Each structure stands twice: as structure tokens, then as C-alpha cells.
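residues and backbone:
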Amino acid sequence: MLLLLLLLLLLLLLLLLLLLLLLLLLLLLLLLLLLLLLPLLLLLLLLLLLLLLLLLLLLLDY
């Protein structure tokens, strides 16, 4: 009986550890995705700023 309880506890601990590991992996993946998307977002922002500047120049030209 005691052995069974211990085994169950161990299994539960292992499951918890696995879940934690999975969560960590997911977080890492998210971070990687964010790092990959960051330059794209910055580029998009830069393009938008350039477009606004161009528009402003066109408006001032008139």
C-alpha cells in the first residue's frame, strides 16, 4: 500500500515536471517568435514613418 502511494506520488511529480518543461519550452518558442518578428515590426514602422514624411513633404510642396 505504501509502495503504491509512493509510486503514485512519484508519477505525479514526474507529470508536474513534464508540464513545467512543456511550459518552459512554449515560453522559449514564444520568445523566439517575438525576436523573429521584432525586426519585421521595426521595418514596418520605419516604412510607415517614411510614408508619412513623404506625405508631409508633398503637402508642404503645394
User: Anything to note?
Assistant: Residues 11 and 17 are 10 Å apart (CA to CA). The longest helix spans residues 2-61. The two ends are 90 Å apart (CA to CA). The chain has a mean pLDDT of 95.
